[in-house]
Specification:
With 283 residues, the chain is an alpha/beta fold. It has helices at 21-34, 51-62, 74-84, 99-111, 134-161, 186-206, 227-230, 233-242, 255-262, and strands at 42-46, 66-71, 88-91, 116-119, 166-171, 211-218, 273-276. Strand 1 (42-46), helix 2 and strand 2 form a beta-alpha-beta unit. The radius of gyration is 23 Å and the shape is globular.
Amino acid sequence: MTDTTPPPNQAEPATEPADSPSTEGATAFSQVMSGFRMDNKVVVLTGASSGLGRRFAQILTQAGATVVVAARRAERLDELVNELGRGLAVPCDIAADQAPEDLIAAAITEYGQVDVVVNNAGISRVVPAIDDTIDGFRHELNIDLVAPYEVARHAARWMIENRRPGSIVNIGSVLGHNGGGRLKTPGYAAAKGGLHNLTRELASQWARKGIRVNAIAPGWFETEMNGGMFDSDGGMNYINTNTPMGRPGQLEELDGAMLLLASDAAAYITGHILFVDGGWTAI
């Protein structure tokens, strides 16, 4: 029989009562972190074939979600779904008349639900306002403002009819808060400014239906769309000089904002524009 009596002068191992402060703290922390999980959630994500969209698809999948990825480049979407290990690729031009409705329908047909929408698709044209064309301006508004509205509306209609709570995350921009100035992006600035206020409007309309609507407004993160700024000394100097933190952002620095707003961790947050910009809008 093994002697379990402790040697002389050796104290018994300390044990903490089940309701000790440290145990309660650990439980609270665990509950907080579990709120960021996305298990059993279906996310519809537009503009997923590159840049921010691709990163969002990766981090949402790692958090447990199943992501329906949409963009025009079908081959890239297929590669992304293969990389993620699960999900659905829906190639489409999100600005086409029927595309937003068809995208939400595809998600529901495949998985029977939609829990989160991430409106990430967008374009940006550099053109002085005096030289712009009304067709070009309208095209930009259609992709950057009208299409997110339509995707959100079709998703929200299904959520409301089926009494399911949900989250809509629009991807805005610091240029939707401050004008682009010498960047000369009138259509983009107008669309993103509109998207920010549309976020607040939809949040107020749908809050009592259990649907939260928020936006992330990134500062300077390198993507295909703004690669020219990062490829030139002048562009980098502009970014570094005007960003209080003195540098552009890294894609992974958007992960926390996305997981917060998409998940139940933000259960009491709606109508908020979350700037992730290194201080760009603080000055």
